[in-house]
Amino acid sequence: MPEMNPALANQFNTTLEKVKPTSILTFDRKVSAIPGIVKLTVGEPDFAVPEVGKQAAIAAIENDDSHYAPGTGSQALRQAISHFMADRYQLDYDPNSEIAVTIGATEAIFTSLFSLINPGDEVLIPTPTFPLYATVATMVGGVPVSVELPAPDFVLTPDLLKQALADHPKAKALVLNYPGNPTGTTYTADQLKALAAVLKETKLVVIADEIYSELTYGVKHVSLASFLPGQTLILNGASKSGAMTGYRIGFIAGPAALMKKLIMVHSILITAPSDPAMAAAVPLFGSEAGKQATEEMRQAYQERRDFLTAAFTRLGFEVASPAGAFYLFVKLPASQGTDDVAFATKAAEEAAVAMVPGSFFGAGGAGYLRLSYATSMDKLHLAVDRLEKFLKEA
Ligand SMILES: Cc1ncc(COP(=O)(O)O)c(C=O)c1O
User: Fold this and answer.
1) Residue 125 and which of 22, 56, 93, 379 are 20 to 30 A apart at CA?
2) Distance 4 CA to ligand 1 centre (A)
């Protein structure tokens, strides 16, 4: 095993001194070692890849679809994504100049921020939210600015946005994730229209992370691009709606003039996505069978959400019933104090139920826990039974 020459210890990019590994993964790794633990920590579907996707990937391999695709992704997948955006959200994106297939939404976040941010540029990030935005903004030399959203709805209002813009007039970008991780919050067309009216007066590029757009309950997802097409980059992908987290297929859609620079960065970074993975995503976005497969998963999530919402309310947690994604963001009962890290650690160690401390999602998250219901009903029942016993004994 080679040992690094000790003289190299300070040879790293100094920006990385500000970047920390994500607390969620560190916590998850720690609690995973607890025997028999029920994990409500992971943000990934427990479903198998839909059959149409699997068969398409197998066919791609057997047909020797094994060469560099265009940097923006295969023509077939960009066409399927264009169809998906029109069919579900009535949006018109040209597969030849306005869509790029990325390595998961993760690369889409990196590519967008890297393409926009100069050293010291501010990025407005409503919190609590997915921690990767702040991490990547920092990594590319920017300054993440948290816009703390008020409980219990965690919605960015035009007034909060105006205040953030007044405090940070030179901010370059806004990241808006909805349906939201960890809160499950979604936005109505009226709420989006009101935000768009404010944003239109600015030079902000909005990175709208809509990766959970297909997983909404009782409401239909509306894209911010319906009201702000000229300055919105939509991020989405197959990870959540297609249960394909390991296939690593995401995409960015936006106006051609913005996409041109992003596509340059993206192509330099990744060359092209993997052919079989792209083939699997074509029927997900482009066929009725793919749409149906997502719909079946959505219905299962809704059933789990309803069960978990009722159960946690009964256990004394304050639960907003989120209209999207597959998380509940619950407030600790008053009897349990406000230290979410201490509670989550104790619940993992003593009740063998793992939940993510809300403070890991930034300002506004302390005193909360995130529960992922992307796990089976049996496990959810077991988690609730264990927690009920734990709270009685606590
Ligand atoms: C809001 C949000 N955006 C992006 C991602 C990353 O998605 P992908 O696996 O497609 O990179 C996640 C994953 O948990 C997420 O919750």
Assistant:
1) 93
2) 33
